[in-house]
């Protein structure tokens, strides 16, 4: 991970303190420019410190826009087409016309990875409503802006992938479909952020969010799965979950291995009495959960089906995706 990425992720362990001899301020300007991350904005590449958008962009003023989080593994962009499809679905839902074709957005993502020599990392693709007035009206925004950042991400400390996470249910309820449909991956993530704050206040890294009916919906940035008697269960999308791309991959992998997967409404009781539990997301990948609201899940250790799916997911990501350096 780069120094700036580590700082953004809040890692401050002594081993990660940058060598003072390599401090960027001491590097000459041309070397700094060479090393700087290149960020794509509306067809051009800018160095990290010059990559700026207007304070009048409605993405900033109102969270009016959409995004995708995508991963690159082993010089390939994983499930790129699926992410771009979902971006266009989100755009349609909020009546935002992306000023590029599907193929052009895909090419911009791959080219930004190439510009940054990114072989393994995380890509943030953002489309804002664009520059407008101080009023809400999106029709006053001239043109949406497309931004691609190719960087690194580490959502949870590595030991949690070994030992499993402890998570809690939080009071903030998942957005109603009739208010802001959770299927829209919008720039307005306050619903999730409030839940994350509540999880952190409760000493946990992640939160289970329930919908207004009290059924399990998802976590703040991940879908949730449980395993009971050898079968996999995950909340249905109508329970208020994002149409997770990792979720789909896991369902497909499980079925290919003759493991039954169903999508019934789940309650906290179902989670507490599961044999295994894990979360899925592009950022989080697959992460086991071993405690929920103080109840130990199964043996309290990542279970065998979870472990085998983690191994299969890792293997798949090594070999599948859009090549960055063809
Ligand atoms: C709210 C929410 N749920 C679930 C997910 C997992 O979705 P995916 O696997 O497509 O990354 C994400 C991440 O994008 C998310 O933000």
What does this structure look like?
With 326 residues, this protein is an alpha+beta fold. The protein folds into 2 domains: 28-151, D-amino Acid Aminotransferase, Chain A, domain 1 (2-Layer Sandwich); 158-318, D-amino Acid Aminotransferase, Chain A, domain 2, CATH 3.20.10.10. Helices cover 30% and strands 23% of the residues. The protein contains 10 helices and 16 strands. It has helices at residues 3-9, 29-35, 58-62, 80-93, 102-115, 158-163, 190-201, 245-256, 268-272, 304-319, and strands spanning 38-41, 44-47, 65-73, 76-77, 121-128, 145-151, 165-169, 207-210, 216-219, 223-228, 231-233, 261-262, 276-281, 285-292, 295-296, 322-323. Strands 7, 8, 9, 10, 11, 12, 13, 14 and 15 form a 9-stranded mixed β-sheet that branches. A hairpin with a 2-residue loop joins strand 3 (65-73) and strand 4 (76-77). The radius of gyration is 20 Å and the shape is globular. The structure holds pyridoxal-5'-phosphate. Pyridoxal-5'-phosphate is lined by residues 69, 192, 218, 221-223, 242, 244-247, 280-282.
What labels would you give this structure?
30% helix, D-amino Acid Aminotransferase, Chain A, domain 1, D-amino Acid Aminotransferase, Chain A, domain 2, binds pyridoxal-5'-phosphate, 326 residues, seven-stranded antiparallel β-sheet
């Amino acid at each position: 991970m780069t120094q700036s990425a580590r700082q953004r992720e809040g890692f401050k362990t002594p081993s990660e303190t940058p060598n003072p001899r390599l401090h960027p301020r001491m590097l000459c300007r041309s070397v700094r420019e060479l090393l700087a991350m290149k960020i794509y904005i509306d067809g051009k590449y800018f160095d990290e410190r010059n990559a700026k958008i207007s304070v009048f962009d409605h993405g900033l003023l109102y969270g009016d826009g959409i995004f995708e989080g995508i991963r690159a593994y082993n010089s390939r962009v994983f499930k790129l087409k699926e992410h771009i499809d979902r971006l266009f679905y989100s755009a349609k839902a909020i009546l935002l016309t992306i000023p590029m074709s599907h193929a052009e957005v895909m090419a911009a993502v791959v080219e930004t990875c190439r510009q940054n020599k990114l072989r393994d990392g995380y890509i943030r693709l953002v489309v804002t409503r664009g520059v407008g007035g101080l009023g809400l009206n999106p029709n006053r925004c001239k043109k949406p802006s497309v931004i691609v950042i190719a960087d690194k991400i580490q959502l949870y400390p590595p030991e949690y992938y070994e030992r499993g996470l402890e998570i809690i249910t939080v009071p903030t309820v998942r957005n109603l479909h009739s208010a802001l449909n959770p299927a829209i991956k919008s720039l307005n993530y306050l619903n999730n952020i409030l839940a994350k704050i509540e999880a952190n206040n409760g000493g946990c890294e992640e939160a289970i969010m329930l919908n207004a009916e009290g059924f399990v919906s998802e976590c703040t940035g991940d879908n949730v799965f449980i395993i009971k008697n050898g079968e996999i269960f995950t909340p249905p999308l109508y329970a208020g979950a994002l149409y997770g791309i990792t979720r789909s991959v896991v369902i497909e992998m499980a079925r290919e291995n003759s493991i039954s997967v169903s999508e019934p409404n789940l309650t906290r009781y179902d989670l507490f009495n599961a044999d295994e539990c894990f979360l899925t997301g592009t950022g989080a990948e697959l992460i086991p959960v071993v405690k929920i609201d103080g109840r130990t899940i199964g043996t309290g250790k990542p279970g065998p089906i979870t472990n085998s799916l983690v191994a299969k997911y890792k293997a798949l990501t090594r070999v599948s995706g859009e090549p960055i350096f063809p």
